[in-house]
Design goal:
homodimer; 141 residues; alpha+beta; three-stranded mixed β-sheet; 6 helices; DNA-binding
Chain lengths: 141, 141
DNA sequence: GGTTCCATTGAGACCCAGTATCGTTCAGCG
DNA sequence: CGCTGAACGATACTGGGTCTCAATGGAACC
């Protein structure tokens, strides 16, 4: 919201409504999720607007796009600084992690390959503590 | 090809043709690229077959799926062991890189977040040496 | 508050990647 | 050679995402 204003974008009803929906989400969500929720809550927000708002939020860095192993595209609300995510493949919860240690790796790769590395993406998939515990309890099946 | 045979899959005309097309590609390519090339070369390979073959090749590990920053899905021919890619954002050339150093990073992340990390994906984008040189020559614009 | 202007919107047509269906073909094997 | 099921091509279908266009409504200025 403040981010919108600061960047010279208009603060409109649909954007306000969507940013609220996003803020109260736990883990990641898809564009389709938002469309469905907006529709079921009668917010009067169109499909196109959801996609436009997501693009915008991504530009502002308050939301990040993930590519799940399944090939789906999902979004996570997050801080607008460079970082990565650990994603729980059972419940979808995500955790932000800082870059620590990766700069070193990218640096060494740049040296080894001769490439000039401009950007990178790191995504980690696994089980969050709660889900790991649940799995252990119900048997590893 | 040998990979197909070894895993008990049939070696058919379309698979042979596609694996040839893929082998002679430099960088990454999309499914649509293959479909178009197969069509223009009159190879008589249907769209569905291209997707099926790509799935298969991916299972065999001789091709890997990338998610480009643009959101497109692309494929790269590569070795069937765990590794990552550096992708030139100008010419699409890719280089394989080993995991060295990343295990350490994922380990420290697991410790910090409590997550049990099962898999990860790292993609690096930048300029290959040739493109970097070309850019420098033509001015940084 | 009223007016104006243009960014933003909703509805729906559209496009494209990927999947499912189904009848046909052909690789591999005896 | 003849069988059998895996693989095939054509094509219909689905679903994510974009485009178009007329209508709306923020924000800025009076």
């Amino acid at each position: 919201m403040a981010a919108l204003d600061g960047a010279g974008y208009r603060i409109t009803g649909p954007r306000r409504a969507l940013s609220r929906l996003i803020a109260e989400r736990r883990g990641h969500f898809t564009a389709a999720d938002l469309v469905a929720e907006a529709r079921s809550k009668q917010l009067g927000v169109g499909r196109a607007t959801v996609f436009r708002a997501l693009d915008l939020f991504e530009d502002l860095g308050v939301v990040e796009r993930l590519d799940l192993p399944s090939g789906e595209h999902a979004y996570v609300p997050c801080e607008p600084i460079h970082h990565h995510h650990v994603i729980c493949s059972r419940c979808g919860r995500t955790e932000e992690i800082d870059d620590r240690g990766i700069d070193e790796v990218t640096g060494s790769i740049a040296r080894r390959t001769g490439y000039r590395i401009d950007s990178h993406r790191l995504e980690l998939f696994g089980l969050c503590p709660a889900c790991a515990a649940a799995m252990a309890e119900n048997g590893p099946a």
